[in-house]
Amino acid sequence: MKMPGRLLAAGAAALLVAASVMVATLLTAPLPFLPSLMPCLPAVTAPSGSGYSPPGLAALADAAVRMAAVWTAAAMARGRRGEGDTDVFLHDVDRRVEKAYAEEFLCERFRVGATGRLWHFRIPPASRRGNGTAAAGGAGAGDGRRPFC
C-alpha cells in the first residue's frame, strides 16, 4: 500500500520535529537514569532496511534517525557513571550526516580506530573528564563552542 504524498511529508516533518525537540531537551536537561540503562557497548547503526540513498523525504527521515542515534550514543557515553570507558562504533561514516555528527558529538580526539566506513570511539566517563566538556560542567558547556568535545 502506497502512502499519499502529504501523509509521508507530514510523517517526515513530525519525525524531524521530534528529533529536534529531543536533542534540545536532552542538551538542556540531562537524564541521569539513561546511562544506567545503557549496555557497555552501544552500536550506532542504520535503520533496518534502509537503502544507501533513499529518495526525497525518506532521506530526511533516515537522516533524522541517524542523527538522533549518534547524539544519543554520545550523550549516554558521557553521562555514564563508573570507571570504564564506553566504546562506540559508527558505520557508514562516508555519509555526510554520520561524519558531521561523529565529529561534533563523538569527537575526533576520542576516535581510536577506523576501518573503511567504520569508526571506533572510546569515550571516558564524566567522572574522569575535567576538561571543559558539558558533562564536566566546564568551559564550553553551553557557551556556543563544541560542548561535547
Automatic annotation (TrEMBL):
Keyword terms of this UniProt record: Membrane, Transmembrane, Transmembrane helix
Pfam families linked to this entry: IRX15_IRX15L_GXM (PF21729)
Membrane disposition: Single-pass membrane protein
Keyword Cytoplasm in annotation: no
Protein name: Uncharacterized protein
Region of interest (Disordered), ranges: 129-149
Biological process annotations from GO: xylan biosynthetic process
UniProt-listed InterPro entries: IRX15/GXM/AGM
Top-level division of the source organism's lineage: Eukaryota
Gene Ontology CC: Golgi membrane
Subcellular location: Golgi apparatus membrane
UniProt key word Lyase: no
